[in-house]
Fold these 2 entries.
Entry 1:
Amino acid sequence: MIEIAQVEIREIRLELIAPFETSFGQTTRRRILLVRVFDRSGVEGWAECTAPENPFYNHEFVDGAWAVLSDFLIPMVLGKPIQRASDVAALMGRVRGNLMARGALEAACWDLEARMRGVPLWRLIGGERQEIACGVSIGIQKSGSILIEKVGQELAAGYRRIKLKIKPDLEQDIVRTVRGRWPKAPIMVDANSAYRLEDAVKLQALEQFDLMMIEQPLQYDDIVDHSRLQQQLKTPICLDESITSAAQARRALDLGSCRIINIKLGRVGGFREAKAIHDLCHSRNIPVWCGGMLESGIGRAHNVALSTLPGFTLPGDVSASRRYWERDIIQPPVEVSNRGTIEVPNQAGIGYTIDLDYVDAITSRKSQWPS
Ligand code: OSB
Ligand code: MG
């Protein structure tokens, strides 16, 4: 039995090592919402809300997540006895959307349950591998030579897949530059919803570059036009933003809107739903991989755990802490071997130690329940 007797949310500020640019904008520093839950016994669990600073990826953003957690979600779980973390999502079922906010509270309860049972989180969710394969996501760069330099660094470091961010009318240059230099490297692109079905010809022009997949070319909530587009492309479409639940994944697969799915813990509302999407895809032979949202170590650790499920057969956007942060908030930081893999930790819960002194030092606001 678990009883969430106490909940704490806080916002921390962390500067990125370098700005990260996508089709929807640039990020230079992160404001990150962290959730900490306590069982009556005093055992704690942690998670990170993946809502960004602004509602440009989907509708969620840090201040909105803060409000919905404070006013609705935390009161729905506080003091409620549950058998296991997989029961938490149902307590928040009346809330529509706000999946990153719900997912953060849910994921914190999974870390809590794993720590209470004394097992690694990845084992608790049903993970099956001790080592996960890693790729990187490379933002839009100022010039082709800078792009070449970045990709070269990541390939030399051992990363197993390179994802290039694209946007309309830069896509040809970006992909040609990298493919021209590395004729065989595993590369893919991510458009973050910057194209429309009428732009199909621009995406067809990328087919010659032997891309592993094109991620989320069309609108963030679309699965119909993606199905039309997939009929016009040999390159697999991978959906990110559009897949918000197992039900939506089923509809997208039935429509032929994609052949690969990027699963993000926050975007789908936590581990329960992420596992359901994974199970559906696994049963239909659809490969999945774990996406990222520029997470600090806590979110990164959750992504490492999620990536151990058997259907995660493609390298994810789960990379080393040092690519993003001078100093991460966990110890040790997430490290990637020269074979492009992360060794999954075996300690209870997320398996990394939270550097609470540092977290406190960079906390800009904090609330707790009961107050
Ligand atoms: O679409 O996958 C995305 C970062 C912020 C918002 C959306 C996305 C991304 C990334 C970065 O691609 C992945 C990472 O955290 O390394
Ligand atoms: Mg994406």
Entry 2:
Amino acid sequence: MSQASTVGLQDLWHAALSALAERVGQATCDSFLRRAVPLQYDGQVFVLGVASQFAKNWLEQRHLPAIGTCLTELLEEPVQVQMQVVESTDQSPHPPALAGSTAAAAPSDEGDFSSTPLNPKYAFENFVVADCNRFAHAAAQQVAKSPGKSYNPLFIHSKVGLGKTHLLQAIGHMVIDQHPASRVVYISAEDFVNRLITAIRDNRTAAFRRKYRHVDVWLVDDIQFIAAIEGPASEEEFFHTFNTLCETNKQVVIASDAPPRHLQIMNDRLRSRLEMGIVADLRCPDVETRVAILEKKAEAEGVDLSREILEYVAQRIESNIRVLEGALLKICAYASLTDEELTMPAVQDIVADYSTATTQHRVTVDQIIEHVAAQMDCDTADMRGPKRTQEIVWPRQIAIYLARELTDETLASVGKSFSGRDHSTVLHAYNKVSELLTTDESVLWLINDMKNVLQAD
Ligand code: ADP
Ligand code: MG
């Protein structure tokens, strides 16, 4: 059979769709494939009409083989698939005519894309400034005072629970206070991608773009998810929004759990654009600062705690301000439930739940290499050395991954522990293991066990 009729095409595509839902997942199927229209099949090439360039890239990069396989199985002959962007893919009895038709403009319902509301607690007034965050705080204030005019983008990174979201939202509050008419959008990268997918599915990509490319201050939280959740297509959309805003002198502020050079993103232009403004990190606060933070929070809760209690809590919980705050809230709740004076043993009891779970032991790269070698039955000298056989490459990659995760060593210094391997080799190993962690459960367990043992020492 060479030329399938239009009706035959539709039937064929419907049959393929049910098989595809199983292979590519319901979300992709609903978002993109149900909207796609079969345009042509000449016995070899099957042309599928999709709603946007974005949908085309997405499907081409991720699902072309699956679509080809389904059609090949149905037709029992090899089928090649091509995508073509058509202006509207609304179901029509005459799909091939669509390429020339003009779609009615989608209603501009921008309410749907509104940003996440800001938390009133995350204001500059409630942020304790100390050495660990002085630079990021100053940059954030500067940006809030003159958005788009000083540092663009401002990129803030730190480990979890050290105040990124707080600073991002503090910028939002200050801008709104000082310039009530300006459009401020705070959104997590994950939300951005989800809303993008919905917009594409509903054929409202244009409204989506209008919304996000016309803001005055764009605060994007947890950008590491851009690459992690949906891959190159969402990254591309993010990149365009980001570029449009920077080029029109709108302020972009980004928070991330890693500096730009360690982000797992594919687009090198995006990476270098991220580094073009100012990159500021937040580090763990020292014990004095932790006491000051606790003092401020207790005051906000209206609970009067002794210096002894505050110091005790601050000493036991080192690494994460969110956890510090959690312990404090529990102490405050306890205090308000009993009329008696809070005793140290009671406080110790409450804090014990938190501190063991969060204070992490410092591990050295040497300890990691020894542990991995012992667990995986290989030689530490081989692991550090030049051998490249599969038996040694895999344990080495795991050790490198753990070294990046559990120590504060730079890529270069991790490389030194492995016979001076350069930073790109270290990064490659790290990325390889990170990738496997999301696809291979046995790797996830292996790494998790090793982390637990290493940190418990
Ligand atoms: P991240 O986004 O980096 O994971 P958050 O901004 O959510 O961290 O901060 C975790 C908690 O710690 C929040 O409740 C925040 O208010 C508090 N916090 C962080 N840094 C400070 C600080 N310097 N002063 C006061 N509170 C802080
Ligand atoms: Mg956060």
